[in-house]
Amino acid sequence: MKSFSQATNLSAHTIRYYEKIGLLKNIERNSSEHRIFSKHDLVWMEFITRLKDTGMPLKQILIYADLRDQGEHTATQRMELLKEHAHALEERLAQEAQHLSKLKEKIAYYDDMINSNNRLT
């Protein structure tokens, strides 16, 4: 658990929670019942983290995970979920770019004001 936690930058608590709610399934265990995470589990957890980091709600990630578990015949549905998320992310990025532009305008305003005052003194 510790090495998987370090590799994913997630707490052991979060990893256990993801397992409990069904995002991590069929985790192998050794004879001492300690979890044995595979490279496949790491790649999957990295994808889950990317979806969360880009603003996909956990409820949607669970839907995606459920479809994934059902097999290849759900590829179209998974692709549509990802397309919808990508579209929402693009809209959010455009809005953030607009916010950044306005902040830079305000910074330039203050820069001009400060430089004008400095020239007067």
Automatic annotation (TrEMBL):
Name the CDD domains on file: HTH_YyaN
UniProt xrefs under SUPFAM superfamilies: Putative DNA-binding domain
Cite the HTH merR-type domain residue spans from the record.
1-67
Which keywords has UniProt assigned to this entry?
Answer: Coiled coil, DNA-binding
Write out the coiled-coil annotation as residue ranges. 79-106
The name this protein carries in UniProt is: MerR family transcriptional regulator
